[in-house]
């Protein structure tokens, strides 16, 4: 199990506290309230001492009611301050936790595709839930709690020594007993808590995976196999939970035994002092109250410090993520295109993914505004990668890509992506209404503009046939719609966005013939006057393109119109002939 170094732990701790800075005055009130509450708590044993030593012997009713009134008043103030403190604490906790959520979201937006391609979605969900909850616990329990408990313990021990030095010295061996035995169980409990946290995250990831794959699991009749894997995670988590709770119980028992041993010693020696009139009964009672409370809180502080390390182990995962450097950044002094025309140039572009060979090896292409370009070739030659580079989701390892004569690296990412529209093979739809899904293309669009875009995408008619029309909820990822309907919603987004450049990544390859005709009709309208790049397997969709670029071994092996390439009888011709002139080979799903 990984152990955080003290220096790194301190750095993460300071980073966590930095989110409290905007709310420092509110947090100061929380601490101030805790100090006042502590002061009242420290007075209570003294009141009991006064009651036993003065009021009871004298049977002074007036003093009794005065003391009762003072105690009641202080307790009322303490309850009020506790309520104020808890509410303020909750406000600070929620605001700071919200800021951490925003910080995570903001950084996730900046991270490149490489992070999401290698990081399971369950890990990211865990950051947003389990790890942020750890921060909330830190804000709610440990920081104010430790401050209050530490202040009480220090002052109470000081009071004990002012009351009777000899009797107070007994605290030292009682505390040393805990300090000598306790840390062994503290360290073990800490490691087991880390293990429990890791297994909880693994279980949550597995639950997410199991729910997400229900359709496939049922289709393969593999429920027993999949639920067996889930059960393994549940068993592992339960075992670690039992062990963690067992050691937590042993730790608590050791703590109690240590200060009970001290209490027995105090009772024996304190009784001797009372009998010899060196200590009053009231003083002895107050001493015992201070002792029990101080020891309980002091050992609780030590335990909290250990548990805090467990929380920091979780918080560190957020810290590590938000400190990942994005693959792609905005330039410090960006250039600004007054109007994007759509002239694109690939100049000696090389690219490789981490731990892989070069996929692109000197790719060159000059595309004029409004031209339609089709990338074809066998799987794994970099067709989809070119689209990702054009959207600047990655940067070339060598060479450059220019938009209207300006390097993409010199343009703001927002201008690049505002100028580009994407239509993928698998359209992502939100689990909201059709209207909101189309509005995704332009959040400021009116209802009239949304309907106009749907008509242009040949989606308006099928939308009206639905029970609630444009306000129909389509389920998670648009599960209530067919593939063709999803794709037309995606095209409606593009009509609404109206970008200068369109990127199509196998936009019709997963559709049936009827749906493909409908979507292709919408595409023909959308692509008019747009610079278009298409990754396609069906030649029927690109025969009238301005250029077809055959990519082989990371380079543009052939370029030309459909007729020109067929006449050369080169690579493109053989690919076409080998698949009856309609379908390029698909060995596997294109992933690069």
Write up what this structure looks like.
With 592 residues, the chain is an alpha/beta fold. It has a domain at 6-322: ABC transporter type 1, transmembrane domain (ABC transporter transmembrane region fold). The protein has 19 helices and 10 strands. The chain has helices at residues 6-18, 24-58, 61-110, 113-118, 121-163, 165-168, 171-212, 214-219, 223-275, 281-322, 383-390, 413-418, 434-439, 447-456, 460-465, 483-497, 513-526, 562-568, 571-578; strands spanning 344-352, 358-367, 372-376, 398-403, 406-407, 420-424, 501-505, 531-535, 547-552, 555-560. The strands form 2 sheets. A 6-stranded mixed beta sheet has the order 6-7-8-3-9-10, sandwiched between helices. α2 packs parallel to α5. The radius of gyration is 35 Å and the shape is elongated. Mean pLDDT is 80; it is low at 580-592. Residues 344-578 form the ABC transporter domain.
